[in-house]
Amino acid sequence: MQHNQTKEPPLSKILGIIENIVPIALGLFLIKVGIMHFTEPDWFEPIVPKILGSAKFWVYISGAAEITLGIGLIIPLLRKWSGYATAAFLILIYPANLNMWINNLELGDGTSLSPTGHFIRLIIQVLAVSGCIWISRNHNSNVN
Fold this sequence. Notes:
The protein is about 70% helix and about 0% strand. By secondary structure, it is mostly helical.
């Protein structure tokens, strides 16, 4: 008697799928937010630390970086480098979020976060940086 057993995919196959989905999802998110920096710059400007000067300049620069890094995460050939670069970028832009938290600033549409919201945002930022490093360390450029 023959049994029709459905085999679950091996763990390595599942991890391979995850290793492709995570950078693509993060890349698409970065592209979307990066585009928002150009279509809605006033939304981001209030949280740019005043010491940096022109908020619009930094909003546009960070938007261009987010789009570029997002594309890099999507393209397998660029993924390893882009993961590390995105982790560094997320660390570099966190002072804007910290500025928002410390000074209780609102975004351009009046949105503000509670102390708990800011803490959750910090945790998400740490997880995103860790995820980008994971992407870089686990990316196999021979596998799409």
